[in-house]
């Protein structure tokens, strides 16, 4: 049972006091509990071995998340209440998609800890966890459609871990996936036409580099799959923890303060799957670099791929990025 499913079985405490929780212990993480507070918010309670580190730790209050250390809590579990000290992570939202997203990330945090985790080790694990949620106060750096399309390519690949490993660290990078000699740029269209905007650099890489353009049609659909739905699919594919951590961090960093609304938007998965095509940068009409004046930069233009012949990535004999498609 997932942390979110466990959380949904909990009732809101009837005692309206601070730091009063109904909770369930986690069989996979004996040092932690999933809980619910008086506001109906999901809470993760983590116990640790005291080493005095908590005296140096600052409590954190962000838009969606609050984190407190060494808190005395009244925890009710199976009708039995007990006072104990925990580090307390509160996610301040009653929106189910966001709650599920939070608890998915919280589980990644718990996998980094042990039953004898010290307060210092807990602090180290918290740092990357908090950064994911700190990004939610920033403006988005890419459209929902663009991020969904990249996640779709990852989920639709034969080896998602390879693609996540080579996924851009920041959304503004030149290519979406970069393995040095092999690069992939994802382009999406809502008009059902393969007319995409390219930067000159994307279609004019050095001679020893190969670029594949993934072209996909995207259409919003109430019965489609959301960004979170794609994340759930990837979570079920035995992705390494550090790569899931990277994925969650990039999603939060990309969507920023639009995350709450963005996770509700769904796209037609079958349309995307049927329309997905790959093209070599060598076959796409472009402005050759030699025709761009020396002091002109950041050149962008539209190119129509309708008549361009698609290629099969499996026929490229690649042992790197292209071989994972």
Could you list some keywords that capture this structure?
5-stranded mixed barrel; 10 helices; 4-stranded mixed sheet; Trna Endonuclease, Chain: A, domain 1; 27% strand; alpha+beta; 325 residues; 14 strands
Describe this structure in words.
- The protein is 30% helix and 27% strand.
- The chain contains ten helices and 14 strands.
- The protein has helices at residues 3-8, 96-111, 119-134, 144-156, 160-165, 200-203, 227-235, 241-255, 259-262, 269-275, and strands spanning 20-26, 29-36, 42-46, 60-61, 65-77, 80-91, 177-178, 182-189, 195-199, 210-217, 220-226, 266-267, 277-280, 300-304.
Topology, pairings included?
Layout: H1 3-8, E1 20-26, E2 29-36, E3 42-46, E4 60-61, E5 65-77, E6 80-91, H2 96-111, H3 119-134, H4 144-156, H5 160-165, E7 177-178, E8 182-189, E9 195-199, H6 200-203, E10 210-217, E11 220-226, H7 227-235, H8 241-255, H9 259-262, E12 266-267, H10 269-275, E13 277-280, E14 300-304
Parallel strand pairs: 1-5, 8-10
Antiparallel strand pairs: 1-2, 2-3, 3-6, 4-5, 5-6, 7-8, 9-14, 10-13, 11-12
Helix pairs in contact: 4-7
């Amino acid at each position: 049972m997932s942390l979110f499913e466990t959380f949904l079985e909990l009732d809101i405490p009837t005692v309206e006091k601070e730091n009063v929780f109904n909770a369930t212990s986690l069989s996979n993480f004996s040092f932690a509990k999933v809980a619910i507070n008086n506001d109906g918010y999901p809470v993760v309670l983590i116990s640790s071995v005291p080493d005095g580190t908590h005296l140096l730790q600052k409590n954190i209050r962000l838009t969606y998340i609050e984190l407190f250390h060494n808190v005395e809590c009244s925890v009710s579990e199976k009708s039995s209440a007990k006072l104990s000290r925990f580090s307390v992570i509160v996610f301040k939202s009653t929106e189910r998609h966001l709650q599920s997203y939070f608890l998915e990330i919280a589980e990644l945090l718990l996998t980094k800890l042990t039953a004898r985790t010290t307060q210092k080790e807990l602090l180290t694990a918290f740092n990357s966890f908090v950064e994911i949620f700190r990004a939610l106060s920033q403006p988005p750096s890419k459209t929902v459609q663009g991020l969904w399309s990249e996640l779709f390519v990852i989920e639709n690949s034969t080896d998602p871990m390879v693609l996540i490993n080579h996924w851009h660290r920041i959304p503004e990078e030149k290519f979406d996936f970069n393995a040095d000699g092999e690069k992939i740029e994802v382009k999406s269209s809502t008009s059902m036409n393969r007319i995409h905007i390219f930067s000159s650099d994307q279609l004019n890489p050095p001679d020893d580099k190969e670029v594949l353009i993934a072209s996909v049609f995207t259409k919003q659909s109430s019965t489609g799959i959301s960004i979170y739905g794609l994340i759930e699919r990837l979570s079920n594919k035995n992705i390494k923890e550090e790569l899931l951590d990277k994925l969650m961090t990039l999603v939060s960093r990309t969507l920023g303060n639009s995350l709450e609304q963005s996770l509700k938007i769904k796209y037609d998965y079958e349309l995307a799957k049927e329309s997905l095509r790959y093209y070599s940068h060598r076959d796409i009409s472009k402005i050759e670099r030699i025709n761009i004046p020396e002091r002109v930069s950041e050149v962008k233009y539209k190119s129509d791929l309708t008549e361009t012949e698609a290629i099969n990535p499996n026929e490229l004999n690649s042992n790197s990025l292209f071989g994972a498609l």
